[in-house]
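During the no-cost extension, the postdoctoral fellow (Dr. R.K.) reprocessed legacy sequence entries with the updated structure-token encoder. One reprocessed record is reproduced below for audit purposes.
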Amino acid sequence: LTFFTNQCEKTVLKRLLKELWKAVISDLEKVIVLPPFADSKNLLTLPVSKIEDAYRLSIRRELGRDNDRSLTQKQCQILDRGLEDVKEFFHASGQGLKKNYLEKTAELQSLKYALSLYTQTTDSLIKTFVKTEKEQGNIIKN
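Re-encoded structure tokens follow.
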């Protein structure tokens, strides 16, 4: 970060950091937090497979995460702590992005929401799902 601070104009540095922040947080959510694919074995053989999906699958394998299980409470706690470290890196003791900006980004809010789902009860998850589907108009009323 010090290198970029010395080499870039302040506005360019902020823009670069914002884009990098979005990419890092989005990838954390997609690769680590979101549930595994239902049929990951066939993913790479499908002609319409997205490169991103294949990448996500390969990262999961490298991390040693069982594709049939979700995150444990301990893993969620580790991710929470890791997020604090990532935020500190991007804040850079006031030389980087403002903490307020980091907290309010849609990417971080989405990641925190996905992590929060791991601590909910089954009933709560079902209610959340039904509520979300209704809000999106996906549930057909008879």
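Residues 73 and 133 are 26 Å apart (CA to CA). Confidence is low (pLDDT under 50) at residues 42-51, 62-68. The remaining legacy entries will be reprocessed before the final report is submitted.
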